[in-house]
Structure formats: structure tokens, C-alpha cells
Amino acid sequence: DAGVHSKAWYAATCDRRMAEDALYRSNKDGSFLIRKSSGQDSRQPYTLVVFYNRRVYNIPIRFIESTRQYALGREKSGEERFDSIAEIVENHQRTSLVLIDSQSNTKDSTKLKHIVKLS
């Protein structure tokens, strides 16, 4: 289970709509949580949901079978890989995460700052 269940930022029973609603309510740049991906695909088990600039971004977390590691978004050369989901979160609490708007193809970046808990 990638060690996520004990983490404050993991929303176990949350779907995309609930996650987005919770982040819009938080209304703080850098608010985030991690939820199970809707597709239930073993290659993309989780989604990082981030609020920035009045928008919610759903970033797939991929599981790379060959290395037993995780990576964010679509596969790209030279991408960062992590041994756990927690490492992704810890890394992006320190270094900015690039957010790509799929509609307008604009880029923003923010750090993961505020854990959003579902009430």
C-alpha cells in the first residue's frame, strides 16, 4: 500500500469530486492531499491533488514496476523517481512542484504546504 495509510495527507475514502471540493474550501495555495486514483490501475494507483491560484490540479502518481518506484505525471525522460509516496510529498514540501494546466498549457509551481483533511 506504499505506506500511505498512516499519513495525514492520505484521504482513503475520497473520490475526485470530494478531493476537489475540500481543496476549494481550503482556498490556500499549496493545499494538497493524496487520494486513490479513480481508474484503479496498478500503474497509476494514486493521485496528488493540489490547489493553486484558485485551481485544483489532479496529478497522477505512477508506479514503475521495473524499479518499484513512483513518479508524477506522464512519463518523461530524466523524471524524478521516488521510493515511496511519502518521499514525493517530503520532496515537494521543500522544492516546488510544476503544475501544468492541460487546457491552456500554462505552467505554475508551488510547494506542498497545507495538508487538507476531509471532515
From TrEMBL:
Keyword field: SH2 domain
Gene3D superfamilies, alphabetized: SH2 domain
InterPro entries linked to this entry: Immunoreceptor_sig_adapters, SH2, SH2_dom_sf
Domain SH2: 9-116
Pfam families: SH2
Tree of life domain: Eukaryota
One GO cellular component, as annotated: cytoplasm
GO terms classed as biological process: cell surface receptor protein tyrosine kinase signaling pathway; intracellular signal transduction
Protein name: BLNK protein
Organism of derivation: Jacana jacana
Gene (UniProt): Blnk_0
